[in-house]
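step: validate -> pass
step: tokenize input -> pass
step: predict -> running
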Amino acid sequence: MSVDAATVRRIAHLARIAVTDAEVPHLQGELNAMLAFVEQLQEVNVDGVEPMTSVMPMEMKKRADVVTDGEIVDAVTANAPESEDHFFLVPKVVE
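step: predict -> pass
step: emit ->
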């Protein structure tokens, strides 16, 4: 896949990045190089390769999956404009 100048301008517009006409050829080359690298990666045979989260074999630290109220309800609602019984009070917006 190859990126043309119009596509570079469109990507810049979508990303809300100001790109001058002088910068377009450089960015076009950069984007084409990235896409060529992705195409190279698609050629790699990964059959039988297990997914990994790190290059070092290690177990992830896990915590117990327990539902709590956070034990800081008063601190959470302390800056609320209005609260009642540890809940935020908000104005009614739907009739």
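step: describe -> The chain has three helices and two strands.
step: cleanup -> pass
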